Amino acid sequence: MLKAVLFDMDGVIVDTEPLHRKAYYSMFDDFNIEVSEELFQTFTGKSTQHVCETLIDKFGLKNQPQELINVKRKFFKHLFDNDPNFDLIPGVLDLIKNLYQNNITLILASSASMNTINWVFEKFELTPYFTDKISGASLKESKPHPEIFEIAAKLAKAQKSECIVIEDSTSGLKAAHAAEIYAVAYRSKNSRNQDYSLAKTVISDFSEIDAKKLNGLIAKH
What we know:
Elements: E1 4-7, H1 17-30, H2 37-41, H3 48-59, H4 65-82, H5 92-101, E2 105-110, H6 114-124, E3 132-135, H7 147-155, E4 163-167, H8 170-178, E5 182-186, E6 201-203, H9 211-220
Parallel strand pairs: 1-2, 1-4, 2-3, 4-5, 5-6
Helix pairs in contact: 1-4, 3-4
Protein name: Beta-phosphoglucomutase
Keywords: Isomerase
Pfam family, one: HAD_2
C-alpha cells in the first residue's frame, strides 16, 4: 500500500532548469571558464556544491566553492524573481493535492539548496502539502547516492516498499534504484539526454498518475 511519495523538485515540481542554466552560464562567464554542453549535462540532478567543486577541480580554479555558489545564486535569484515564464509544471499541483487528499505523505527530496526550496515553496504556497523538505546540499552524499531517499522514507515513517519516488534525472533515478524504492520518471522537456531505464514507469504528463494509479503500480510491484 502506498504511504509516501518522495518528490524531486527541479524538473518535476517547477521548471527551474532553464533558470539554472542561465545562472550557471552567467557564473561561468564571471569566472572565465568554458563549459561544454556535454559537461553541463552531467550536472543535471547534482547539488550546486557538487557542481562548483567539480568546476574548481576541472579548471584548476583558486576560488573556494562558496564563492562560485554565491555568484550563481545571485544570478538565479534575479531570474527567479523576474522571469515571466517561471511557473509550476502543468498538472503537478493537481497531483500534489490529489495525493494529499488521499492521506499520502509527501516529502520533498531535492538536490537544490534549502534557500531555493524555500523560495519555491513560498512563491507557490506548497508548504501545507508536504510534511518534510530535504536538501541534498546539506547531506554528505549527492544523488546518485541513495542517502536522500533513505532519509525521506524514514521521515515519512514508511517502509521503502510503501514509497514512490518521482524524478526526472538519471542521477535521481539511480539514487531511487540504489535505495530500492519504486521510481516514476517524469520526461521533462528540459531534461535532455537523461536515462530513464531504471524507472519502473515513465510519464510525460502528470494527468497520467494519481493516488489510485500509483497505489496500483506499487501493488503490482
